[in-house]
Amino acid sequence: MPTIDHGKQQFFLLIAVIAAFVFVTNIILLSGVDVRTRIKNIPIPIPGKGKDGNSAAPDPNLPKLDSWHHDNGKFEDHAAVDDKHPIRSYMKEANAVFNKYEESRSMTFKETVAKYRRKYGRNPPPGFRDWYKFARDKNVHNIDDFEQIMDDLRPFWGIEPIRIRSLAAHMHEDETRGISGLHIRDKKIWKLTNPNWRVETMATVVEKFVKFLPDMDIAMNRLDQPRIILPWDDMQKLLATEKEGRRIYPDAAAEWTKNMTGMLKDNDTAPILTSPEWYSKPGEQYMEIAKEACPPESHARDSSSTLASAELLYKDAEGGFVTNFNRSSDLCTMGPEVQGKHGFLFAPSTIITSKKLLPVFGECKVNVNSDILFPANMYYKDDDRYAYDSTYDYDWTDKEDSMIWRGVTSGGTNTADNWMNMHRQRLALITNGTVMADKDKKVRILSEDPANHGTYQIYDHFNSSKFASDHTDVGFTEAFACVPNCNFYDGVWTYKNMTTLSEQFESKFVVDVDGHSFSGRWHAFLESKSLGIKATIFREWHDSRLFAWRHFVPLDNRYDEIYSILTYFIGYGKQGEPNEPYMPRHDFEGNKLGRQGSEWAKKVLRKEDIEIYMFRLLIEYARIIDDNRDRIGYSGDGSELDKYDTKHPMSPANGGHA
Q1: Residues 40, 33 contacting (CB under 8 angstroms)
Q2: CB of 617 within 8 A of CB of 206?
Q3: Backbone phi and psi for residue 201, each to the nearest 5 degrees, phi listed first
Q4: pLDDT in tens, 537-568
Q5: pLDDT in tens, 331-368
Q6: What is the pLDDT of residues 526-541, one digit of tens each?
Q7: Nearest alpha carbon to residue 512 among 397, 427, 415, 579
Q8: Contact 447/459 with Cβ under 8 angstroms?
Q9: What is the pLDDT of residue 42?
């Protein structure tokens, strides 16, 4: 009888093992067990975890394994759940919009100049070539994406330059009004007035390129809250003036006008003064002021408008997911629904505003404000509370299936009567397992249709208590901003220990909500390998370069879809279990979004990008304050930098892949 050699024996043994594995797996599937959940629960030692599962300080010398997808191509092509969940379609739509954004980039100075003229109907400002080379030398990714600057400055074309200069020069002088000044003379920062850390950090940024700038005075908001609310009709008149004045002069002078009046001077015996007409409205509902800047037909001003019609503009009626992130933070669209649910809107710590168009530079604003946005100083300042630190930012598969948030009770003036309606407090309540155990605390999620796998239907009586206890870690570290004191919180919160920003990255999901104004953590959250979930009413300089459902998950400011989001990524229930919701796990989709956000943040939210944005902002600002602003600018075709562009080609779109 012939014998089978050793190699063949091993081969047949391998075949037998594979067959046995396939057989057992199919038996499990037929029995209705959620295999993905079972596999997920197999205990695997995680770096940085002790034997009891608690956090342990990781060995900084411990090498990290490369992510799976680096060795096997694009992992999502192999592992994404192919179903008809709405989030999957939103991710596809976001990818399409993002790819179009990437493909439209100018690749040379000549293209950049031509696109500028087509889009804005003017020559670029003096100094544009210097800015272009500065940006290119710092590896800018998209040389065209500065739309926010142009939008912010457009209405100032309707105001005389001398008035803008006068306001910028002197608004800091009343120190009770919250304005600091940065003053540039002879290509140097001459002085800071009414200084604080914010304007000092701004000066650090401006120093990088001040040698290219003309004389100017900059008025910076030193308060948390935005300042300027221009009534709708007034704004439309200014915008019409700007549009009517667009011209492209072939003989434009590429030089700034010198020795203009109205700027700040030492010992000025006859300063040109213009009143900013500040007024303070403590205790007033912000929407009562804000709605004046909304169009008459908007939800905020049209009494016949309904909640349902407003929500159709930015929410999915089925799952409640945000489909238009820009609209979801638009007070003209959703303001009436959140005016009693966001601390800034009903209990702001300060409101010092003006209905006049003032040249105030601010770190954030709501959509109705006319402040001039610049990159928030906290994003540039090396502060451990806000700067990205990779120490605990493990690979996705080593992170916990949980959503974390830590902070203090800021966001407005806390009182015993209003705290439950403030935005941070509502997040802590809705994600608290004990609070949500109340039988009346049912929430809506999507559940797989048992009769049609891969499709989903509304399940509107989900008791989220156990899920919240297992998968959320949201809490306050201390009480803050209370009147007359914070004693009313005694017995309300169990305060949590302080955690570093990096320790929060042990969780797969990091939710970001507003404080008194914008959140300074957002850049670090995006840069991490965790997936950022974002709810805000504030606008920032970077908004146009971040794409919801590609780089982060948008969240309604009422948080009503938070459990639909979390159950989608984490999964819930068992397939086929009667009278219970079931959501298959979409872990790879979460990993994909987190990875895309991290890679993109490292490309477009760097300190260099802040410098590039600020340089461009200040040459555009310098033009609107110039008495000859209509006749100055760069009039060339851009061909003088052809050799430079050939030698320094732009980075490929999407890093070379979609």
Answers
A1: no
A2: no
A3: -70, -40
A4: 999 999 999 999 999 999 999 999 999 999 99
A5: 999 999 999 999 999 999 888 999 999 999 999 999 99
A6: 999 999 999 999 999 9
A7: 427
A8: yes
A9: 39
Would you tell me how many other CB atoms lie within 10 Å of the CB of residue 327?
Answer: 18
Residue 249 carries which DSSP code?
-
Strand bridging mode 472-478 / 400-408: parallel
pLDDT tens for 146-201 read 999 999 999 999 999 999 999 999 999 999 999 999 999 999 999 999 999 999 99
Query: Mean pLDDT of all residues in the chain?
Result: 90
Q: What is residue 74's predicted lDDT score, i.e. its pLDDT?
A: 47
> Measuring CA to CA, how many Å separate 137 from each of 140, 218, 582, 606, 608?
8, 26, 52, 14, 10
- Of 284, 150, 174, 299, nearest to 225 by C-alpha is 284
Q: β-strand 442-448 against 456-463: which pairing, if any?
A: antiparallel
Residue 111 CA: distances (Å) to CA of 60, 135, 148, 221, 268 = 46, 15, 20, 35, 46
Closest CA to 80 of 584, 600, 507: 584
| Residue 132 structure tokens | 């272009």
337 to each of 310, 431, 536, 563, how far by Cα in Å?
10, 21, 14, 20
Cis peptide upstream of residue 484 (ω within 30 degrees of 0): yes
CB 295 within 8 A of CB 301: yes
Burial 85-118 (b: 16+ CB within 10 A, else e): bbbbebbeebbeebeebeeebbebbbbbbeebbe
pLDDT of residue 281: 80
Residue 506 sits at the vertex; the CA angle it makes with 583 and 386, to the nearest 5 degrees, is 120
Indicate the helix (H) or strand (E) that contains 152.
Answer: helix 147-153
Specify the pLDDT at position 64. 41
Question: Terminal CA-to-CA distance of the chain, rounded, Å?
Answer: 60
In sequence order, which ranges of 305-348 are alpha helices (DSSP H)?
307-311, 325-328, 331-338, 343-346
